[in-house]
Every structure is written in C-alpha cells, then in structure tokens.
Amino acid sequence: MAKKAKAPKFRSRIKEFIPSCPTEKLIQHPDNWRLHPEQQKQVLGSLLDRHGKVDAILAYESAKYGGLVIIDGHQRQEMDDAYPVLILDVDDAEAAEILMTYNPLAAMSDTDTDSYRRLLAAIEQDEADNAAALSILAESVLGESIIVSQEQEDVTLKRVEVRAPPKMAWIVIGCPLVEFGGATAILDQLQIIEGVIVESTTSDWMPKK
Amino acid sequence: MSKRGFREFPRGGTRETNNKGLTEKVALRRHFLRKYHADEAKVLDCCQGTGQIWKNLRTEFELKSYLGIDIKDGLSRVTMDSTRFLTLKFRENVIDVDTYGEPWKHWLNLLPNVRQPTTVFLTVAAMCSMQMSIDVRLAVFGKDLQMPQSLFASLWPYAIQSLLWMPTKHGLEVVECLESVNDHATRYLGIHIRPMQKQG
C-alpha cells in the first residue's frame, strides 16, 4: 500500500504563475527600498543574455495601488517587455513585510568559497561581457577582487590593493639570551598595542661594521 | 654578485624559465593591452630572453613599436643593462620586466621618467622573498637598514606595499594593479600608472 504523502509544513502563498507577463502591467512598490546601481543592471543584462530568464518576479494584487504590485524584481521589470511572474496571495501589509525581509534573508547565508571557486573555474568564459559579469559577481561573493580572464585559459587576474604603507618606526631590541633569557614577554606586550607589528628572530646576529 | 654588479643565480637550483607561467603572463598582458593600449602600444621588453611572451602577443595585437633589451649577447636587438636604459627618457608606454630575479630596480629607475599613461609588468621571483637588495632597502626604509635576513623575509609584504605606492612620490597614480594567479611561487604583476591629474 502506497505511503500517504505527508502534508507540507508550510502553506504556499503562490496563487498564479504567469510565464510571460507584460512588464508594463506591473507597478513598482512605492516602498521599495533597494537601489540598483548601473553596474548591477549591466551584470543582470549579461546574465540574461547568457542564460535567459531563470526566475520570476514576485507580485501581488493590490486594490490600494490599483493592480499587480512588485514585491521582488523591480530591476528585472526594467530589463524586458515581458517576464515570468509569480502572483502571491497576500495583502498590502504582508507584501510590505515580505518586501522588507526577502532579500536580507538571502544575504544572511554563509559562503563556501572553495565550492564557489570550483564553479567559477568550471565556467567557460567565451565572451567579454560574461567575463566582466562573472568578475563582478565573484568579487561580491568572495570579498576579494577577482577578474576572470576572457580567454578559455583558466587564468584568474586578482586585483592587488595599492595603498599607502603604514608610517613605520623601527625599534630593534637585542636581548642576549644567555644573560637575560627570552624576550617573549616584552614582545607579547608590544603585540597588544594596536598598529604595532612585532617580528622576531632568534638568530645570532650582529650588524656589519 | 657578478663583476657587472648583477646577482648570480644559484647553480643547479630551480630557475624560472621563459616558458614557465607563459599562459598567466600572456593573459595579464592581454588584459592591459586591451584595456589601456588599444590605440597605441609601444613596448619595451626589458629582459627579452627568447621573447616568447611578446611573440605570442604580437600575433594578436598590432604594436606601434617593440624594443627588446637583454643583457646577454645575441638575444635581443639591444644588448645592455635595461635598468640603466630606464634611467634615460624612454618613449615606450608598456614596460615589461619579466626578469629572472628582482624587478624592483627596474621599477624604481623607471618611475621618475614616466610622462604618459604607462603599464608596467613585473615578474617577482620567489627568491626575492629571501633577500632584499640594497636598492629596495634604500627605497623602502630610507637607509641601508641592517637586520637579520629572516626579518627581511617577514618585512617583504610591507616592502612590496611601499614599492607599489612609490609612483605617488613621482607625481603618478596607480590606476590598476592586477596579479595573475598561478601555481608557482613567482608573482606576475601588471600595474597601470599615469601622471596625476592636476586639480582645478
């Protein structure tokens, strides 16, 4: 006898899916708080060129605003004349709450950088635009600047930060071990001071005369 | 040190060859040529050797000029010490220092003579991390600082930071600095510098 399927723990709020909804019908949420810089738009354009539309805009019907209002996907609306849309069965208050929580929740996830690097290395970068988009995304995920080569050579160009060197003053402490023992305690204390870098060696050394 | 004032390479040790890291080196140069020198690239290849890097690139890019220099006879058009060449006024805007050893003397010599947007490629061999030449010590510490060799090795990251910041002391700004990531210990750097824009 077939096992009875368990009832899902959480209810679905999706009431309709429109595979190709004219984006002019969608209304931007008046309280949308996310700003989309030009660079993000360029990256999205590049990914849409490469993969097509692989997700859907979230929207809901609002009498207050007079139509289908976007909860998530304000930038995607501007990218094309039609876009897949998931219509949620929510009211204005719930929509506002989802608008507030949806993206920050995604941003809370941690990153397995090794897996990400493996994925990055496996991608064939055959177009300059795609390489630029991947570089920007990789930079935002890995927290370091990376430029993906445009060639199929698996070469990564990493940005080197050029900044003013710290102002340096040198204190050289010579501590004859035989007479005074180790200087570890002094060095440990110095290390606590912010901005102080302690390098030490136990080699027996005298300056050249 | 050799009689001509150049550090001798250890015999029998692992030594960087021209072909090692060729893919990474070419990719780095390709990026900067496309981005900054699509109109005009005048290349000065300071340690030409067999010239493999630029042989590859010359099939892809139309260079305005190419001048190869090497201290060894017969390898290049000009046989001379390229660190001395760089103390003169040069007209090239792409300077390649793919040296076996330390590129910093080239770097320090060329900076006062940069008058136009210029890209410099530096190959920093692993052996550099074990010792610090007097040129670098003078440039970074302001004096020929004496200390145990092991301390110099620990100070290399700060020294490189200072060296890369050095253009600002010559009225230049660093527009972009990239490193071509590779599996060996040698670092391949590309730096685009230009005269600072005058305010007002």
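qc> The beta strands of chain A are 14-22, 26-27, 57-62, 67-72, 82-88, 146-148, 156-159.
qc> done
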